[in-house]
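$ run holo --ligand "iron/sulfur cluster" --emit tokens
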Amino acid sequence: MIIDIDENLCKGCEICSDFCPKGVLAASNVINSRGYHLPKAVKREKCTGCKLCELLCPELAILITKKT
Ligand code: SF4
Ligand code: SF4
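-- output --
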């Protein structure tokens, strides 16, 4: 899976990491230009492509696509 996080849109709410059923995402120490902590894919290989994170992100900052 390709997990694309638009760091300019992210507000660091951690909804994506809290709700990912596979624990793929976690808050990181990386801060974007607005001072928010960005999530990071720490278990990328576990991603099932369920798109829950994409659907729940209030900023529409995540895009999940299958590798072709
Ligand atoms: S698509 Fe599903 S499994 Fe993959 S990171 Fe998002 S919530 Fe987790
Ligand atoms: S749900 Fe969206 S805005 Fe919130 S931390 Fe994740 S990517 Fe950022």
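-- notes --
Residues 5, 10-16, 39, 57, 59, 61-62 surround iron/sulfur cluster (ligand 2) (CB under 6 Å).
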